[in-house]
Structures
1.
Amino acid sequence: MKDMSEKPLLIVGEDLCQQLVGRSDAFDAVQDVFAAMARGDAYNFPVIREAIGYADALYGFKSGFDRAGQVLGVKSGGYWPGNLDKGLTNHQSTVFLFDPDTGRLSALVGGNYLTAVRTAASSAVSIAHLARKDSKVLGMVGAGHQSAFQLRAAAEQRDFEKVVAWNPHPEMLPRLGEVAKEIGLDFEAVSQEELGAQADVIITITSAFEPLLMKDWIKPGTHLACMGTDTVGKQEVDAALVASATVYTDEVAQSITLGEAQHAIANGSLTEDQITPIGAVINGDHSGRASADEITLFDGTGVGLQDLAVASVAARLADEAGLAQRAAL
Amino acid sequence: MKDMSEKPLLIVGEDLCQQLVGRSDAFDAVQDVFAAMARGDAYNFPVIREAIGYADALYGFKSGFDRAGQVLGVKSGGYWPGNLDKGLTNHQSTVFLFDPDTGRLSALVGGNYLTAVRTAASSAVSIAHLARKDSKVLGMVGAGHQSAFQLRAAAEQRDFEKVVAWNPHPEMLPRLGEVAKEIGLDFEAVSQEELGAQADVIITITSAFEPLLMKDWIKPGTHLACMGTDTVGKQEVDAALVASATVYTDEVAQSITLGEAQHAIANGSLTEDQITPIGAVINGDHSGRASADEITLFDGTGVGLQDLAVASVAARLADEAGLAQRAAL
């Protein structure tokens, strides 16, 4: 039973992921897997999420299979709130990839950096396909760890001139301002209302449990990418805004249960069949934005296949560059 | 964020598992985790199992957390029917262990050998706690890959003198006979009725979808360990036998839905509250066998915590012996 045992297990650490996987790699990988999902060539397995009753940790798995890309695997990980005091990040993720032809473990990939990159790629894909071409002002709601990744990826999709930003903790905004300056964009800390009045594209990336943007503050033609809501009870924007927008998502099943659309679905102002998988737009099966005045909203819930897609890129690039550690099982 | 990065990831391959993890290690680990489950100190997360629509593969995850043993992790793997032609085993398993204090991946352990060992340990634990002390004849139903592991582990629990065996494919029995001889036991290939008439302890380890042993063939005082049924629709023994026996299991939730008890539950001849977790006997909260005439039946469904328990032993022993490969994520 040893014939294929020379095929080594690739191990790709966090540093190597950061070195090798760029924003355009992540964009392409996430765009492709969203398209495969909408065609029925890729699907996510049920998500496992458990409060383990120890160390206040939330732990679980996201997994799936992309037949088109030949990517099979699982991202394991969770949230350990005490980690920062130990010099570790609170979110810990690892991706395991398997050979779809044999079931053998093929790669082990650090998932912390990749999680940020794939989430940013998701909103960037939505901007590429749904935002007005003449969008000039990018609005950022949220200024945490992920916001800089979001800003960098979004900035590459349109000829933005300016970033307007709001965060529940305003003292965190200057760090995001530094990122904006670094990529040559003006930066202004504004009120929530002012953000809505100025922005052509808005990304929300918070852990909020109440609406931070109301329907009346948003101007016609805006594209919103709501990236923070991934749990029952979380909410970033007014349910009336969601109901009045044309809604797209990564996975409809998650959008209606634990994504930003959950509240509009729950109060009956939005129905499941009004939500379009972004992959349908990528595939050309849905025409996307209908007019310059339409408000489009992307409900980015985050699916395991995104993680597997970017991890697969990391493994391939590390293998090609001869930089992956190798082990045998 | 590097303070703890010197703590390496341990990689323990199949060969090392075979070299280091003995039957008594597996017995102790499985006995301890069954006890922890019954006390509420350990629990299994929901099982993911998917027919992925490619290579006829069944793929999935079993996971859980043992707070008492401080073991957190997931066994991934599945069944790839085309592997034998490629020189690989059809069942492919890998276990991933995480540090419960931080969520970091701590060990990667080959799961193929360990799956056989932990399944054998499970029936052995049931024999140790439920079979009559004066049991002399061991009955084996099944002669596949797992049967030799089952026989070796069971033989250590009682002073058996003889093995009687039956298999749907009788040509496979001589190989099991060699194992019996190796450990000093007489071996006889018999009919199913004769097996029931002679055996004091019976292990069933097949992939059957219909009863192989009927109630009337089993003599009073027998202990049965039904180890093959792990899926809806599978069945190894007569539902009337299950209903008339005193039933124990590893996990009640699995026993009633996909274990051997599913059929007696479905026809109403057994109720959930009549099934006792074997851990309750191990802990002394249930007195176990009530008389020399009682028929006891252990429904071994197989839980993720068993895999994590033996993998944790493998990682510890490999680390102590300085034999584990090490990597950094």
2.
Amino acid sequence: MKVVWEEIEMYSEEYLNVMDFTEKVMSLVIKSKVKEGVVNIFNPHVTCAICVNEDDPDLWQDLLEAYQKIAPVKGNYHHNAKYRGMSREQNAHAHILNTLIGSAVNLPIRQGKLTLGTWQSVLFVELDGGKHRRILVQIMGEE
Amino acid sequence: MKVVWEEIEMYSEEYLNVMDFTEKVMSLVIKSKVKEGVVNIFNPHVTCAICVNEDDPDLWQDLLEAYQKIAPVKGNYHHNAKYRGMSREQNAHAHILNTLIGSAVNLPIRQGKLTLGTWQSVLFVELDGGKHRRILVQIMGEE
Amino acid sequence: MKVVWEEIEMYSEEYLNVMDFTEKVMSLVIKSKVKEGVVNIFNPHVTCAICVNEDDPDLWQDLLEAYQKIAPVKGNYHHNAKYRGMSREQNAHAHILNTLIGSAVNLPIRQGKLTLGTWQSVLFVELDGGKHRRILVQIMGEE
């Protein structure tokens, strides 16, 4: 089994944002020459998340509004209270949503390509923006 | 490492539904002859989801009611407004819930069998029913 | 590909609890001698969950409070009504949250170590405590 490591850098100036990075993942899978296997897209951060859904900015606004209903930015959080005065640590909402949306996605690779469905894109969900992010891409399988 | 591909077809007439498809997954794992490895049950759709939980229709009603509290079918969504008049596209609730419940589950295979716990079943969660669905089953490991 | 199986036992007297078990996972990865691969931390139970986030007890209280907003312990559930009088089965909230937080995490192993980010810990989320839990750890990859 071959194991290939890559990284994808993401940056959002917007505090809450959804960004499509499917093409970057696709090109890394092709570059790896892995033909049958899996790509583990692993987010080593705790205040952003990764998921798979449609490439539609209207929908992305719906996602962010729904996430805000679950865990509003301006909520009353113990984590934020402990770090009162530290503007970069007022982010309990983002931690909570990371645990619900998830840290990683495992996408199958078949005949050298991602098996994404017609409406599927790989989405980066920034919940605590203005930070430089580094997404780990682990490609495993047979050549 | 052996990689075997299978598909499972799902169809729910009900708009919101939970269906247990554990036995189909189990029989595909046995058929694959993979003894030690993993089965990646990957949903290529964006308005239904897959999870692992109990085979209890009363609980399934609780799941759907809880999901409806998070993202009601009759909510006020940008995605739905854009596609106003297209009844098949009034499904932002389903997209939102897909990102929270998840697109895929990775189940370990040990001695040729799924390692599911006593109360675990593999569940298909339809959130935008009346559509034919095709679940991808990727079985990887050693014979 | 080498496949190694381990188990981690967890027990929380508290009914709702978050516990960090990163060090146990790390030591099992080192013991396995797998250098490049993945560890699938699989929860065979349906009323607790696993996620990756920060080692901060204040944040953990925020997590549990947010989860309670989604699915309160004292909610009105079909599952609980069916098992009325059985105190150990009044746990629909825990089933619901298991489907949202997730049953398993897949962590990459690189050069014999977990690739966790600076603020990432592996967290066990007990949602129906007072039960003995057994977490399955499947380590796969190349030596």
